[in-house]
């Protein structure tokens, strides 16, 4: 795995990116127009605006996230927590591509 897209913002996104960078993996941040100067955007190797501030017009648009990931040739998408991690559309869109969906597996 060479590059991942982190489909979240804030501290969660930065934690995922720090771990990826320690592993030698490049990171891509996505952001809404209001978040253009957010820390996760500045921390990522690449960043792409995905829409307007309401999350249903940006962070929750699974099809847009997949489109960006394919365009930037990422190997996987980490949905973070909340937002897309709870959205079944992301999984169904990802299945139609060669992208890996990186999720945290919890033991019972």
Automatic annotation (TrEMBL):
The keyword ATP-binding applies. It is an enzyme of class 6 (ligase). InterPro entries: BC-like_N (IPR005481), Biotin_carboxylase_complex (IPR050856), Biotin_carboxylation_dom (IPR011764), PreATP-grasp_dom_sf (IPR016185). GO terms for molecular function: ATP binding; biotin carboxylase activity; methylcrotonoyl-CoA carboxylase activity. Its EC number is 6.3.4.14. The keyword Translocase does not apply. Transmembrane segments: none annotated. Residues 1-108 form the Biotin carboxylation domain. Keywords: ATP-binding, Biotin, Ligase, Nucleotide-binding. PANTHER family: CARBOXYLASE:PYRUVATE/ACETYL-COA/PROPIONYL-COA CARBOXYLASE, METHYLCROTONOYL-COA CARBOXYLASE SUBUNIT ALPHA, MITOCHONDRIAL-RELATED. This is Biotin carboxylase of acetyl-CoA carboxylase. It comes from Jejuia pallidilutea. The lineage of its organism: Bacteria, Pseudomonadati, Bacteroidota, Flavobacteriia, Flavobacteriales.
């Amino acid at each position: 795995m060479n590059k991942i897209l982190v489909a979240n913002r804030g501290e969660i996104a930065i934690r995922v990116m720090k771990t990826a960078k320690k592993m030698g993996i490049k990171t891509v941040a996505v952001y809404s127009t209001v978040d253009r100067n957010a820390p996760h955007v500045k921390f990522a190797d690449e960043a792409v605006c995905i829409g307007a501030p309401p999350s249903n017009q940006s962070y929750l648009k699974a099809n847009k996230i997949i489109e960006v990931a394919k365009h930037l040739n990422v190997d996987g998408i980490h949905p973070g927590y909340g937002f897309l991690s709870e959205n079944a559309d992301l999984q169904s869109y990802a299945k139609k591509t060669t992208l890996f969906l990186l999720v945290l597996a919890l033991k019972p």
